Amino acid sequence: MTTEEITSSVLVATGAVVALAALLSALARKAGQPPVIGQVLAGIALGPSVLGQLPGDPSAKLVPDEALPFLGVLGQVTLVLFMFSVGCELDTSLLRHQGRTVTTVSVAALAVPMAAGVALGWLVAGTDLAPKGVPEGWAFPLYLAVALSITAMPVLASIIRDRGLSGTVPGTVATAAAALTDVVGWLLLAGVIALAGPGGRSPAVLLGLLACYLLTMVAVARPVLRRTSAIPGVLRDGPLIAVAMLSGWATNSLGLHAVFGAFLAGLLMPRTADGTPDRELVAWADRTGSLLLPVFFVTTGFSVDIGGLGPADALLLPALVVVAVATKLGGCALAARLGGSTWRQSAIVGALMNTRGLTELIALNVGKAAGLLDDRWYALLVVVAVATTAMTGPLLTWFQQDRQDGPGQPAPHPARAAASGSRAASRPT
Known about the structure:
The protein is 71% helix and 0% strand.
C-alpha cells in the first residue's frame, strides 16, 4: 500500500471506531453500564471476533494489515496522554488520610487476588492450559497475580458519582483504596515486566538505569513541570506533552512500557498543599483521551479472537471469573467489614473494587507486548475484565436496595471524597 492509501485506511478506521464507540457507549450508559463497556465492545466488534466472521472478511478491509501498525501507534500515543492524566489526577490527599478501613481494604485488594493469581499460574504451568510461548517459571504466575488485583480507578470514580455514593462511607473507602492500589499495582506490574524481559541487560544494569531515570524525573522533570504549570494558555501544554512523551520513551527504552513513564510523569505534576490535583492543567489530555482512546480498543479488538477459544476454555473462563470475583469482591468486602463497616457497606466496597475496566485492558496489552500472555490467555482475560466490570452495576443495584443500614452515611472526609470523585469521573471511562 502507498502512504496515501495507508493514511486513508487509518482515517476511515479511526472515524468508524470513534463513531461506533460513541454509539455503544451511549447505549451502555442507558443500560446502567460504564461507557468503557461500549468502547471495548466497539473494538471487539470491528475485529476478527465479530466483523471478521462475516463473508468477505470486512474487518480486514476496514483495517488492512499494512495500516494496523500505524493505527496501533496512534492508539499508543493516545494511551500515553491518557495515563499521564490518570497520574496527574490521582488525588494523593486520599493517600495521606487513610483510616483503618481504607488500609485494610487496600491490603486485601492486592494480597488476596495476587495470592490466588500466583496459585492459579503455578497450577496451570506445565499443562495444556498454560500459555504458549511464555517462558516457564515465575513470570506468568507473577503477572497473573498483578492482573487479577487491578482496580479501574477512572471507571470506579464514574460509577460512584452516577450511583450517588460520593461522600458516603463505601464511596470514600473504595476511592481511597483504589487510589492506593493504583499506584502500588502499576509499580508491581513495572517490576514484573522489568524482571521478565530486561532486554538482555543484567538486573544490576537495569536497576542502575531505572535509578538514573527516576533521579532525572525528580531532579529535572519535576521542576520543569512546576515552572511550566504556572504559564497560562497553550504555551504551558507543549512542555507538559514533551515531559509525558519523553518519560514514556525512557521507560519503553528500559524494556518496560511507555504507560509507566507517562503515569509517573503525571504523579509528579504540581498539586495543592493538601495533595489535591489541578484538573485544568491536563484538561487537554482528558479531551484527547475522550475522543481518541477508542482507537486503542481497535488494536485490542484485533488482538482478540473470542471465537478461537476452544472447548477447554469453556471451563477455564468461568473458573477465572469466579476466582477474580471471589478474591477481589470477597476479599475487599471482608476487609471492609473487619475495618468497621456494616455488611451492606462492605458489599458495596467489594463490588466497586471488583471493577477492572480500562486499567485492566491496558495491563493486559502491556503483558502481551512483554510476551507474558499468548493470544488465548489474552482473550480470556479480556473477557474477564469486561465481565467483572459489567457486573458492577447490577451488584450495586442489589446491594443498594435497602439503604437503611448505611450506604448513605457520611464518610469521614465527604467533601474531599466528593471532589475527588467528581474530578476523576469526568475522565473518559
